[in-house]
Amino acid sequence: AGTGKSKVARILGRIYAELGVLSSGHLVEVDRSDLVGEYVSESGPRVRRAVERAQGGVLAINDAHNLMPGESPRNREAIDVLLACVQGHREDLVVVLCGPEGQMNGLLKSDSELSALFPKRLRFPGLSEDELIEIFQAKAADAGFALREGVLDKVRELVHGSTRDSNVGNARAMISLLDRAVAMQSRRVLDDGVLTDDESLDEILAADIPGTLTAGGHIELPGDPLAEIEKLIGLDAVKQEVHLLVAEAKAEQLRRDAGIPIAPPTRHMVFTGNPGTAKTTMARLLAAVYAKLGLLSSGHLVEFSRADLVGEYIGQTAPKVRAAVERALGGVLFVDEAYSLTPADSGRDYGHEAIAELLKLMEEHRADLVVIVAGYEGPMLRFPDYTDDELVAIFEVMAAEAGFTLGDGVLDAVRRRLRTAARGESFGNARLMRNHLDRAIALQAQRILGEEGPKRSEIGLLRVEDLPEDEGPHVDENLGHYL
């Protein structure tokens, strides 16, 4: 991984287009999840759709070794249809299979027809230490950072001491290392409070380089990000949300100790507000808070905009989103002006594809990734509202699935709050119930932590006093901090 296979496939498509071998030369990247269906007979249509999208260009199948035909009838179906499509589109299509050398050899040996259709094989060697150091240095320069004495020596030590397996010691590892170093540098500068003569906001010191090549374990960031949040002017409601997050995270351990099954919660968020209201600053500090709590392994923040996530041509968007998520793993992926992903005149715009891919990856990596989307508040696609009875039932089911018992009067209190909730265009429906439950769990955490040795029976019990306050008909329907 990270040795330039996709980049070379993209360049190859352009060369073939200039030579007249391909009509467009665009690149479409897919993997097994894009080609193999959940049931037999679903794989064929998926493969055909991928081939149609790539017609005139290059179809790159990443981790193609996962399509080993003997492992699943669905794999066999995908391979058979792929073979038929390749033979039927020889004139205006190039297919590239990518994956680890050993496993790829096994795939080709498993099917003689497949091996015959793919006679050309290029091996991309792992990058040398000097090449990796050069990549780190170049990426830092592109980001506007100068490297102080000792930085490259420390990076070399990390590279030299790594296992250098198929997923470590490549260009992606260098990009991730730089992101984490920038997070460490930001925390150091915030912790110091005042820049000294030998410090600069655009310089990375050796002390900023993490002790591991990849964010595989928890990193102890310097300083106290919660204290830095308190120093911010205003933002009282946001600060209260952060305190609830902290209380909830601490209470999670109590619940685990009490034997209550705790699934990794969804901590993705929406920040709305005008420019200059500290959304990015808060996201960066919140990433550090989560790292301090052990909820994220790194706590770095990576910022992206529409241009970073949405491709200009078919097949470019999903790989861009995957690359963004990979960079942000262990930290926070911050999407600024997120509303631009779905412009009003979208038509055949690929922003919807970016959102679909991002939602899938947010769920896959929910244990070590937080996605924060920021921008102006805008209208959403409207679905029919649930009735009060349906919403109360949804709240009850959500609470049970979260491992909580509801005390006397809780459901009646939820029903009373629904009667006073304004049902405008942005009424939350099931999301409102999820946010009310999330808020109740956070408030319950705050309550039991304030008790002297909370009783075991209280740890998994939600009482009426744990519910958010009823603020009347003008209640904020987006109450809560989760997306």
Please state the CA-atom Rg, rounded to the nearest Å.
25 Å
The parts where pLDDT drops under 50 for at least 5 residues are: 379-383, 471-483
| Count of beta strands | 11
Beta-strand content estimate: 5-15%
Q: Tell me the strand order in the biggest sheet.
A: 6-9-8-7
Mean pLDDT: 80
Number of alpha- plus pi-helical segments: 19
Judging from the principal axes of the Cα atoms, what is the shape? Answer: globular
Separation of the first and last Cα atoms:
31 Å
**SS-based class:** alpha/beta
Largest sheet: 4 strands, parallel
> What would you call the quaternary organization?
single chain
Strand-and-helix sequence, N→C?
A: HEHHEHEHHHEHHEHHEHEHHEHEHEHHHE
The residue fraction in helices comes out at 40-55%
